[in-house]
């Protein structure tokens, strides 16, 4: 076997910059020797999440390691495995999981401490070593670019829709998605593949038709219609429903008020993101939840078991991730960050990594 790399190139974030100037290429990132349960992979594609731009901009509300290798979502090929690895072999297509040690059940303090691209070095590099527990083998139907979109964005949407026993999405249910970002588009794709109905919002006229093309039953422009939650509820009631059984809450404090207007009695609001900023600006809380008679649940990505379930569902239903038409090369990673920040994309923003 050819000798394995001892160093690799990848990006790091200098957090003190407070801007994308903090992204710097490091050509000498050490590649550790393989332990018995370790797997060396060659990364082929990385996709960006809002979290990845929030970190260098110092907008991320959780601790970030100084000089971290960014990004949680990527896919690659196994280059070599440690002596005790049985489930993977050289040449297998894999994704590192967002939480490196979270097989099933509820996220614990310990499993949460194993997240990639913030607390621990992530995937925006050419090679990386992971414990076999932190890798998932991919089916053949997904390209490397498509697979790179799954570990955080897709799994979060999956967990929101299917993660609570007794509240899993069913055919005929209504889902409300906010904006056309990564998590929301996956929620739309999964819901339509199951035979559920979707009200999608967007702030961009040009994206309205594209959301309809993906199957959205109603699209509301949240900039033109600030009471979009109420409009969604009225529409669902006209169709004989009682409101949205699932709300994909990615806006945060600024959108929660309308989410509570849209949700069905006993429906589930999945609190996922903070895209709208304005932390603490609008206070929705106790009485609003009480009056809406709904369930409100914070979602933290998902487990490896949920990842496997999601892959089976995608294969069975033919669900393919939407990748934006503009794909960036490794050298142009900063441009990809700027492109995501400008929010003109439709589908996941992907960076390809050459061999
Ligand atoms: N809790 C978790 O486990 C978890 C996991 C993944 C993501 N997140 C969080 O969830 C949020 C979404 O992440 P993402 O990666 O999917 O984001 P993203 O792909 O960057 O989404 C950006 C899009 O969101 C829409 N948007 C922006 N501001 C909005 C607002 N005020 N109201 C409604 N839509 C708005 C816009 O869509 P239009 O252009 O169509 O308007 C924008 O293009 C982020 O806050 C992220 O940190 C949390």
From TrEMBL:
<dbReference type="InterPro" id="IPR011032">
    <property type="entry name" value="GroES-like_sf"/>
</dbReference>
<protein>
    <recommendedName>
        <fullName>Enoyl reductase (ER) domain-containing protein</fullName>
    </recommendedName>
</protein>
<dbReference type="GO" id="GO:0016491">
    <property type="term" value="F:oxidoreductase activity"/>
</dbReference>
<dbReference type="Pfam" id="PF00107">
    <property type="entry name" value="ADH_zinc_N"/>
</dbReference>
<dbReference type="InterPro" id="IPR036291">
    <property type="entry name" value="NAD(P)-bd_dom_sf"/>
</dbReference>
<dbReference type="InterPro" id="IPR013149">
    <property type="entry name" value="ADH-like_C"/>
</dbReference>
<feature type="domain" description="Enoyl reductase (ER)">
    <location>
        <begin position="18"/>
        <end position="351"/>
    </location>
</feature>
<dbReference type="Pfam" id="PF08240">
    <property type="entry name" value="ADH_N"/>
</dbReference>
<dbReference type="InterPro" id="IPR013154">
    <property type="entry name" value="ADH-like_N"/>
</dbReference>
<dbReference type="InterPro" id="IPR052711">
    <property type="entry name" value="Zinc_ADH-like"/>
</dbReference>
<dbReference type="InterPro" id="IPR020843">
    <property type="entry name" value="ER"/>
</dbReference>
